[in-house]
Amino acid sequence: MKSRFIKIVSFVLLACAAVMLPVVLAGEGNYPRIAQLGRQLDSLARENRKIRWELGELEKLIVKMRSDPQLIKKVARQEFGYVSPDEVIFIVE
Questions:
Q1: pLDDT per residue as tens digits for the range 61-92
Q2: CA atoms within 13 A on the CB side of 75
């Protein structure tokens, strides 16, 4: 008798859970919110991959600049207007 009562109560609870689960998930806009969060997660993952790739490229540039004096000179010329002592500058207005 007690075993049968436990089975009936378990079945009733399981049936209530089965009925309530879709209501809870679908209620108050949960499905659209879940979809929006999924899209946001995908977008952030793409952005994260892009930033990691850029970081890798910058790390490669740092390694090159530490070992290549010509590259340092080239960047100094382009970015800071570096001029060698043996060069002549002409300013035309």
A1: 899 889 888 888 888 888 888 888 888 878 88
A2: 10
Decide: pTM greater than 0.90.
no
Q: CB–CB of 82/76 below 8 Å?
A: yes
- Rounded distance, CA 87 to CA 8, Å? 96
Under the phi-then-psi rule, with left for phi > 0, alpha for psi from -120 to 50, and beta for the rest, what region is 81?
left
Q: Which amino acid is at 81?
A: G
DSSP assignments along 25-77, one per residue: HHGGGHHHHHHHHHHHHHHHHHHHHHHHHHHHHHHHHHHHHHH-HHHHHHHHH
The pLDDT tens digits for 10-62 are: 888 888 778 777 767 666 666 777 888 899 999 999 999 999 999 999 999 89
Q: What is the DSSP string of 70-89?
A: HHHHHHHHHHH----TT---
